[in-house]
Amino acid sequence: MVSIAVRQLSVALGRRTILHAIDADFAPGLFTGILGPNGAGKSTLMRAMLGLTPIARGDIVIDGQSLAEVAPRDLARRIAYLPQGQTLHWPLSVARVVALGRLPHLAPLSRIGAADQAAIGEAMARADILHLADRDAARLSGGERARVMLARALAVGAPALAVDEPLASLDPGHQIDVMDLLRQEARRESTVVAVLHDLTMAARYCDRILLIDRGTLVAQGTPAEVLTADRLRAVYGIDADIDLSAGKSTIIPTGRVTND
């Protein structure tokens, strides 16, 4: 299990501050969604948590240890990361792409062993891509490619999973499959964090929500605590029909807020 603590985190790009003194905790067994408008700083927060973006102030603490003290290889074994919008440039089979997820566990020049093969097969089955194993991954549709990349992250076998916009390019059925899978990962006591745009999916599947606007953490808590009509107006500038009843949560934007 992996616990991640964000403490007074600020990130700057040149003279512009992207994130302002963020405090948040990501715990095993919970599926946490990071929400906010385009440009709010969601992906920047995730990248900072993984040591991929320099921190101006504050700290990221992994299991009580400052991120700066965690070796990159150790971090890669503990937190699997799926960035958004990945492009494949090489003619690799799907099975070989998924196998790249095992790299953090392999010594230089070593071969994939039986345990690695088992992890790869399980990851492909869970992402519903076993039938694509021998296909050229670069020639797949956007939705198929997204599931291949998710399988690669699952193949790491890490106790934490960070995914950035995992629903992009997926049809509604596979969006449901992915959200089901991420929730199942959390139920296995994994720490699961996802950057999301779909408010209904976040409300229905996430245990906790972080809502970010212009680099500031506006609210965090359960979907019912965070996704209120007033906050959606203030953060997204929308009115919405909100039903957070157990088992049928829906948030349907109905229009832009006007100042009339």
TrEMBL record:
This is ABC transporter ATP-binding protein. Residues 4-239 form the ABC transporter domain. CDD domains: ABC_Iron-Siderophores_B12_Hemin. GO terms for molecular function: ATP binding. It comes from Sphingobium olei. It comes from the Bacteria. Keywords: ATP-binding, Nucleotide-binding, Translocase, Transport. Part of the ABC transporter complex HmuTUV involved in hemin import. Responsible for energy coupling to the transport system.
